[in-house]
Specification:
Blueprint lengths: L2 E7 L4 E8 L1 H11 L9 H19 L5 E8 L4 E8 L4 E8 L9 H5 L6 E8 L9 E6 L11 H13 L3 E7 L4 E8 L8 H6 L2 H19 L3 H6 L2 H8 L5 E3 L6 E2 L5 H11 L1 H11 L2 E4 L6 E4 L1 H8 L14
Parallel strand pairs: 5-11
Antiparallel strand pairs: 1-2, 1-10, 2-9, 3-4, 3-6, 4-5, 6-7, 8-9, 12-13
Length: 324
């Protein structure tokens, strides 16, 4: 079963999280492989999307936010887009769009960031919005401050966390065809750290000690190998890495797979195409068929359904959707 483990280092300004997605990640891959039009993702894409999925769960559980966290990467390589969406209850969905053949592309830069045009965007979309409120979005390039391409997705997110939250973060991510997993270690903000006067008044020795605590734990975390992260259970991993530390652990959480697509949302999308475009598709194909890229669910609309969509009323189309 997929689980997320949260823990603190007792007496130290450091927190951690460990996620191992098994059944959830396998469900994502199974639904993609069952799509007759697209088929399974190539292996490097599966592993990149798995790392993104584990990372998105870690980041969603790391914030106090009642809304969806949407993580995207997009660029100028054969992987045009990869998206993971995680809800506050840790239900998730994920998809990627691959155009053409990957060829020899294996790394993040080869798949997404060929000419340094790639970007990573993280969007926080609140469930309840105030009038005029827009989702918050942060965007970072897939290169470092020296414009050197980053080949590990964990490096991209570490750079993002340092820029957006000014918090030192260590991430270890890995994925294969059965498991997507990640370990996050983060230095907790010191009370008043964002205040310049408070920062100026901090004792230098105290600040050095706090950094040394984080650095020591970060080095231990970075020693975790992909094989260990994917194949060892959480208790074994934490015991091997931090056997000299006093951990305060919390009850594990259980991520799940869930898709938010619906006939109502698809109907709204068709309405956005306009009546003329919808009628053109119906004339050519006899029906409008829309498939969800996340879960593979198919929605079909005949002429009667389309008429209900564009009718000047709020009535929903009858349930003749022929969903497969």
């Amino acid at each position: 079963m997929s689980q997320l483990h949260k823990f603190l280092f007792d007496g130290l300004p450091v927190r951690g999280m460990l996620v191992q997605l098994t059944d959830v990640w396998q469900e994502v891959l199974k639904r993609r492989a069952a799509n007759l039009e697209t088929g399974a993702y190539p292996e490097p894409v599966r592993h990149l999307l798995g790392e993104m999925t584990a990372a998105a769960v870690l980041m969603q559980s790391n914030i106090k936010f009642n809304g969806a966290l949407v993580m995207q990467i997009f660029g100028d390589g054969p992987v045009k887009l990869a998206v993971v969406e995680v809800q506050p209850d840790l239900s998730l969905r994920a998809t990627a769009k691959v155009v053409g053949d990957l060829g020899q592309a294996q790394t993040l830069s080869e798949m997404v960031n060929v000419h340094n045009e790639g970007r990573c965007a993280i969007t926080l979309d609140p469930k309840t919005k105030m009038p005029g409120q827009q989702p918050y979005q942060g965007v970072v390039p897939l290169f470092d401050d020296q414009r050197q391409k980053l080949d590990k997705f964990s490096e991209v997110l570490q750079h993002y966390m340092l820029q957006s939250e000014q918090l030192d973060t260590t991430l270890v991510l890995s994925a294969n065809d059965t498991t997507a997993a990640g370990l996050l270690i983060q230095r907790l903000p010191i009370k008043g750290e964002g205040n310049l006067a408070a920062k100026a008044s901090m004792e230098d020795e105290d600040e050095i000690g706090r950094n040394e605590d984080y650095n020591r734990i970060a080095i231990l975390a970075a020693s975790l190998t992909p094989d260990e992260l994917l194949n060892l259970d959480a208790d074994t991993i934490l015991r091997r890495l931090f056997w000299e530390e006093n951990l305060v652990r919390f009850e594990p959480l259980t991520p799940s797979f869930a898709c938010s697509c619906s006939r109502e949302r698809v109907s709204h999308m068709i309405r956005g195409l306009g009546l003329a475009e919808a009628e053109s598709i119906l004339a050519e194909r006899g029906e409008i068929e829309v498939g969800c890229d996340f879960c593979g669910k198919q929605y079909r609309y005949d002429a009667v359904d389309a008429a209900h969509i564009f009718a000047p009323s709020t009535q929903q189309p009858p349930s003749s959707d022929a969903v497969h």
